[in-house]
Fold these 2 entries.
Entry 1:
Amino acid sequence: MSTECKFNGTAQQEKELMDVIAQYKNEQGALMPIMQRAQDIYGYLPIEVQEVIADNLNIPLSQVYGVATFYSQFALKPKGKYKIGVCMGTACYVKGSAKVLEKIQDTLGIGMKETTEDGLFSIEDTRCLGCCGLAPVMMINDDVYGMVTPEQVGGILDKYRKESQK
C-alpha cells in the first residue's frame, strides 16, 4: 500500500517556485498557472508547496487546496516514475481491461491513484486512449500495450523494474 511520504523539496525547486510566483503574482487568474508550474517543479503539490503559494498570493490555504482537490490534473501525492493507465473505455472494458487492471493492482499491491513504496509505479484513472482496435490497452508513461492479457502483466512490469536498475 502507498504510505505517506515526507516532503523533501530542494533549494533549487524552492527558487524555481518563487520565480514562478514572482512572474505571475500580479496577473489576474494567477493561481492555476502557478499551481501547474509548481506541480511541474515538484511532480505533485504537497501541502508545504500549497502553503508557499497561498502565503505569497495572500490567499487562504483552503482556496489553494480547494483548487488542487477539484481539478483531477493536480496530484497531492507523488506519482511513480512509471505511470500506469489501463483504458476503461467501452471497447477495452468489454475485452477484459478490468481483469488487466485487477492483475496490476494485485501484482503491485496498490490501488488507483496510489504509488508503490519504492516510487516506481503508480496507477492513474484512464478513459479511452483511442486505440479501440487494440483492446484492451494499457499505457506505461508513453508506451502503449495492446491486446493485453492479465498473464502478460508481470512480464510488462518486470521490463520497467529492470529498466530502473540500469
Note: The mean pLDDT is 93.
Entry 2:
Amino acid sequence: MTESARSEIRAALRQLLPILFAALPFGMLYGAIAVGEGLTLWQTIGFSATVYAGASQLAALQLIGIGAPVWSVLLAVVALNFRHVLYSASVGRHLTRFSAPQKAAAFFLLVDPMFGAAEARASGQKLTKTFYFAYGLVLYFGWLAATLVGALFGALIDDPLAYGLDFILPVYFLTLLMTFRTRSLFYPVALASAAASILVYLTVGPPWHVTIGGGAGVLFAAVAKPAARPRREGVDA
C-alpha cells in the first residue's frame, strides 16, 4: 500500500469515528427492537445488510409491529429513502474514475454520513476510491456489528434518547451543511427546503417532510440558477 493510500484511509477514519460512535447505539437499538418484534437473529442481520438504512429499518419495524399492511410499510420506506436519489445524482459527479461495479458499490454505501463526507471531501480536493470505500465499508460493517450486539444483548441496552444521542446526528449534519455556505444561493435554497419540510411535517407528517423538503430545495435551486463563476485565464471551468 502506498503512502498516499494510507493517508486517504487515515483521513477517512478521522472523519468517520465521531459519527460512528453516535450511530452505533442506533444500530444496537434497531437490533434489539427487531428481535423484540419477532425477527430471528439472521433476519435481523440480513435486514441491516441488505436495506442498510437505519431510519427506514426502524420505521418498517414500527409499522410491522402495529400490523400495518405491506403496501404502507413499503411506501414509508420509499418515502424515507427517496432522498438517496438526490444523493446519488450529486455524488455521482465525483465518481468519474470509478468503474461501473465500483459505482454500484459506492451507491449502495451512500447513506447520510457517507454523502456528507463525500461532498465535503470533493469540495476541497479529489474524492478518491480509497477515501470513499474506507469510510463507507467501515461504517457499513460497524452498523452490522452494532445490529448484532443489539440483537444478542438488547435487554441490556438503555434508551439512547435518554442520553441525548439523538441530538448528535442532527448537529453533525448541520455542521456538514454549513461547509457549503459559501456556495451561491446557499441560504435561499436552505431556507426554501427547511420551510417546505416544516410545513409538510406539521400538515402531512413524517416521513414525507424529508423527501418533499429536499425536493423543494432542488426545485428552488433549479429555478433560481446561481450566477456563473467567472472563468480564470488558463484554467478549465
Note: Confidence is low (pLDDT under 50) at residues 230-237.
